[in-house]
Amino acid sequence: MRNLKKALSLGMLCPIYLFYGNEGLLMEEFIEKIAALISPEGREWDRELFHGDESDISQILLSANSGGLFSQRKLIVVKDAPWFQTKKKSSGTAEPEQKQENSNDNKLAAEALIAYAQDPNPDVVLLFTSPTANKATRLVKAIAEAGRVVEFSSPQGMEREQWLAAYLKRAGKVPQRGVCAYVSLMAGEGLSALRSEADKLILYCDRQTEIHMEDAEAIVSRGALAGVFELTDAAAARDGKGTITLLRRLLQQGEAPYTLIGMLAAQYRNMLAVWDMRRRGFSQAEIPSALGLHPYVVKKCWQAGNHYSGRQLLNALEALLEAEIGGKSGMGKIEALLEVALLRICAI
Question: Residue 25 and residue 31: Cα distance in Å, rounded?
């Protein structure tokens, strides 16, 4: 993806592309970059859209070979093209004749695309998107040789935060330190979920340029991870009533008790690791890279760790483990066992 970004920044276009992967929003961003290079004025007749499940390959290639209107360059986008996807096991529901017909159609389409890739129209950029792609096929290899095959997977860590910072900047917002890290951590997987939270934050801060941590904490959706932070904070404060109230609220929201146990155990393991690093003289700023943890997670562990000894953190992990074993071995309802575990942690 970096090579594609660099090439587009230099104005370099290929005659044929295949974009595949699970990050559709990022694909759309790069499609728009290509469209802007082909037609800076945004002319409608310089772009054509096909849907792979509704279009015949002959229609697509006829358009590709005809070029743009008034001898201008043209972008042709074929979304969800079915000819690149990894084959799935047959469900056995289709009739044998239908299966054979579909297989033959796909083979013919692939051969037609291979032939086009060997001699593409220089006045056209033909771009396919697909959820998956089998890179070992002749078709994908032919497109890679003639143009670019690019995988779009969801960015993680700093890349995700950088995307968010750039998105907020385009909206005229300046996030304070820690805001992007917090929103990135709390938002769901994928850029679509992150953009949704960013849009809410932009609207919430409509009359201000700077986005403060208080703004992010007030408006960003608080799912299971935020709930785990709240639970561990309440337990660290030895607030048994508050801890159980928070737990029951999370369960009422539909969070699975075993998932919560796993997340709580992970957080207490992180606390123990941060506690140990701190004891050995590491600063809070040094720990994220040393342990491979998110800075916000380290911050929460550092704060909660002020209330525990190393032995107490081990006891907390033992209490959570006993609750999980008890629930799976039929010693009681997991919800009640989890409540007991958290009360034990509050009492240590």
Answer: 10
Cα separation of 165 and 47, whole Å?
30
Same domain? For 23 and 143 the reply is yes
Q: Confirm if 180 and 165 have CB atoms less than 8 A apart.
A: yes
Q: Are residues 147 and 163 in the same domain?
A: no
Residue 18 sits at φ, ψ, to 5 deg, of -130, 115
Cα–Cα distance between 153 and 26 in angstroms, integer? 9
Question: Residue 299 belongs to a domain with what CATH number?
Answer: 1.20.272.10
Say how far apart CA 32 and CA 37 lie, in whole Å: 9
Q: Helix 191-204 to helix 179-186 angle, to the nearest 10 degrees? A: 130
Q: Which domain holds residue 214?
A: 157-219
Q: Left (φ > 0), alpha (ψ -120 to 50) or beta: where does 50 sit?
A: beta
Using CA atoms of 341, 344, 345, 347 in order, give the dihedral in degrees to the nearest 10.
160
**pLDDT tens digits, one per residue of 144-163:** 999 999 999 988 878 889 99
Distances (CA, A) of 10 to 31, 190, 254: 16, 28, 49
Same domain assignment for residues 9 and 142: yes
* CA dist., res. 197 & res. 187, Å (int): 7
Are 162 and 107 contained in the same domain? no
Do 247 and 275 have their domain in common?
Answer: yes
CA dist., res. 74 & res. 45, Å (int): 8
pTM of the complete model: 0.65
Sequence length of the chain is 348
Q: For residue 210, what pLDDT is reported?
A: 95
